[in-house]
């Protein structure tokens, strides 16, 4: 079985990549890496709690799973997860243009994820 710490280590690597992407002006990629940080961090928590995780990229679904285990999840975290999970797809596909990828957007997601890093 994979150790939950491997999940968290990979999550933090994605957060470092998001920081590097910001510095290089690759704002779309910073948002994608922020989403990946959230996904792997939540899956790491689930692996620690249950030894497994749902096969999904939905941060909301992962939070629902954590809540179904009897843990309280603040509504604000659901709002953030719902907005962040969209970047899994939107940031990767050219021409979709459903989101604006600029410095402000990328910095916002990096700061959100960096702030939540303390809970992982």
Quick structural summary:
This protein has 120 residues and is mainly α.
Describe the structure.
The protein is mainly alpha-helical and 120 residues long. It has a single domain (4-112), classed as Four Helix Bundle (Hemerythrin (Met), subunit A), CATH 1.20.120. Helix content is 70%, strand content 0%. The protein contains 6 helices and no strands. α1 runs antiparallel to α6 (103-116). It is globular, with a radius of gyration of 14 Å. The mean pLDDT is 89.
Notable characteristics:
120 residues; 70% helix; mainly alpha; Four Helix Bundle (Hemerythrin (Met), subunit A)
In helices, the fraction of residues equals over 70%
Question: Pairing-aware structural class of the strands and helices?
Answer: mainly alpha
Helix segment tally: 6
Counted up, domains total 1
The average pLDDT is 89
The amount of beta strand, in percent, is under 5%
């Amino acid at each position: 079985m994979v150790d939950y710490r491997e999940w968290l280590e990979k999550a933090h690597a994605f957060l470092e990549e998001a920081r590097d992407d910001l510095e290089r002006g690759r704002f779309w990629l910073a948002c994608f890496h922020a989403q990946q940080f959230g996904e792997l961090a939540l899956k790491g928590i689930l692996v620690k709690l249950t030894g497994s995780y749902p096969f999904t990229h939905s941060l909301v679904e992962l939070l629902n799973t954590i809540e179904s285990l009897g843990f309280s999840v603040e509504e604000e975290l659901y709002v953030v997860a719902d907005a962040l999970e969209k970047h899994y797809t939107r940031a990767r596909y050219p021409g979709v243009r459903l989101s604006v990828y600029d410095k402000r957007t990328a910095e916002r997601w990096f700061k959100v994820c960096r702030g939540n890093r303390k809970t992982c």
